[in-house]
User: Which sequence fits this backbone?
């Protein structure tokens, strides 16, 4: 299988093509990077620059052509801070889609931090003890605290080289006051977060992203040291803050494409190191796109082809177009995840199956936009033919079939899909039994239900809930459907309001 990964950042867009082989065998066929400066003006004006949009679309055209020449099976395009912040980001996403048929997914800050950590932890040798992972981008900075490859704390901060340069360092050289304001602004986010959540002391740090590699290169060229030490970085900041652009370009090892943002990046990294109380940062070449690749390797090993969990916002947006209420839909997802987690020892399903249950809970009523009569059939048709870019055909069938049967009080086993695939068929029946409970408890969209706790005994599943209607309609609806639950899980079902 060949996949292409596009990482659309604030400053640059990266494009990789990989051949996935058996096990963890990966061969990189192509790697490219284009500085499109998509974040140009975004952090001061809140809108994308028209020239930056054109540069980005042109880059995507180039990537599409290469992907076709290399016979790529799947293109994954993720965008980060600049499109999270821009008020007109949908315009760029639509333009890329219309001209290249590539769907760009705008990920959240926490998703970005998790993927960066995954990319580094899966590929780097991590020292024993607690280690900080620092990634400085154009619009945001992600810091993760790990211990023996386990994530303890992870945060995405609205701090990046392009953002800070646009807001604070508008002149070259900058004024003394602007540097002080920049430092205070950075500390307001990082130090406060670390103090509130009591982040532990770390022994060292690993730094990803072009900014950290560029700073390490400058220090190496000028001092010969291979590792970026805080004292050397502080000396470099003192030197650079007195220079104009021409003088900065004269520094040995300086990259011309980063010269306008290098001081903002250096001050930001210095403040991160001071907050973490570390003396040096070791650079790494691994980051976000390596985390995306790692996910795809795991999915290929499991013979799955998508990660719906990364795209719940897209599913909710789709449900909204058919009349769904965003707040209500998120409440339903919370209820679904609480039930799936609480009954884990009973259903014994891998956590990936929860994502399909989430999707069905979100989309189960989209058919009502067509007609309340036969809405289940309409829901099935809509989900089956929606052509979500991140869902394969069998996954569409799985979710659509859950929507088709979600309101029934009984089901003929002849109607259950995946007759020749035992594992999927069993997972479907278990997900459907839980979806019937969710649908019964979700009696009124205006009055969200909250699952407070669920317990499992040898003969009984007991669910306590709060919220919902004031008439115990939820209990009555569950009573109508609990026979199917018992046939699947061999347990009686009892729900009570608390």
Assistant:
């Amino acid at each position: 299988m060949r996949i292409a990964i596009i990482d659309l950042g604030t400053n640059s867009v990266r494009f990789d093509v990989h051949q996935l082989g058996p096990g963890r065998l990966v061969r990189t066929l192509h790697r490219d990077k284009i500085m499109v400066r998509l974040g140009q003006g975004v952090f001061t004006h809140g809108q994308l620059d028209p020239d930056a949009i054109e540069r980005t679309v042109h880059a995507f055209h180039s990537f599409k052509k290469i992907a076709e020449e290399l016979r790529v099976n799947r293109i994954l395009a993720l965008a980060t801070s600049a499109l999270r912040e821009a008020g007109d980001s949908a315009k760029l996403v639509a333009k890329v889609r219309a001209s290249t048929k590539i769907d760009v997914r705008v990920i959240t800050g926490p998703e970005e931090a998790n993927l960066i950590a995954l990319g580094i932890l899966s590929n780097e040798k991590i020292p024993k003890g607690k280690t900080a992972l620092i990634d400085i981008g154009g619009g945001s900075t992600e810091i993760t605290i790990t211990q023996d490859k386990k994530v303890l704390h992870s945060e995405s901060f609205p701090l990046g080289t392009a953002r800070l340069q646009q807001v604070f360092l508008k002149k070259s050289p900058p004024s003394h006051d602007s540097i002080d304001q920049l430092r205070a602004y950075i500390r307001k986010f990082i130090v406060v977060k670390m103090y509130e959540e009591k982040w532990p002391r770390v022994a060292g740090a690993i730094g990803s992203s072009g900014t950290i590699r560029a700073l390490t290169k400058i220090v190496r060229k000028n001092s010969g040291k291979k590792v970026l030490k805080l004292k050397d970085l502080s000396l470099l900041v003192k030197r650079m803050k007195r220079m104009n652009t021409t003088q900065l370009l004269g520094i040995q090892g300086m990259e011309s494409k980063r010269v306008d943002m290098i001081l903002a990046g250096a001050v930001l990294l210095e403040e991160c190191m001071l907050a973490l109380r570390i003396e040096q940062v070791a650079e790494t070449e691994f980051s976000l796109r390596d985390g995306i690749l790692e996910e795809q390797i795991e999915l290929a090993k499991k013979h799955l082809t998508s990660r719906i969990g990364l795209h719940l916002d897209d599913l909710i947006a789709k449900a909204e177009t058919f009349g769904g209420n965003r707040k209500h839909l998120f409440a339903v997802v919370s209820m679904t995840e609480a039930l799936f987690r609480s009954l884990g020892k009973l259903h014994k399903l891998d956590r990936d199956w929860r994502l399909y249950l989430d999707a069905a809970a979100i989309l189960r009523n989209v058919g009502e936009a067509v007609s309340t009569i036969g809405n289940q059939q309409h829901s099935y048709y809509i989900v089956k033919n929606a052509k979500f870019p991140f869902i394969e055909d069998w996954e569409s069938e799985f979710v659509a079939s859950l929507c088709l049967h979600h309101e029934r009080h009984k089901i003929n086993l002849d109607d259950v899909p995946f007759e020749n695939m035992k594992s999927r068929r069993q997972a479907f029946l278990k997900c459907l039994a839980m979806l019937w409970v969710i649908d019964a408890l979700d009696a009124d969209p205006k009055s969200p239900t909250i699952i407070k706790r669920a317990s499992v005994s040898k003969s009984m599943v007991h669910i306590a809930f709060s919220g919902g209607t004031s008439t115990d309609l939820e209990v009555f609806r569950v009573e109508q459907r609990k026979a199917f639950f018992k046939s699947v899980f061999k347990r009686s079902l009892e729900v009570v309001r608390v």
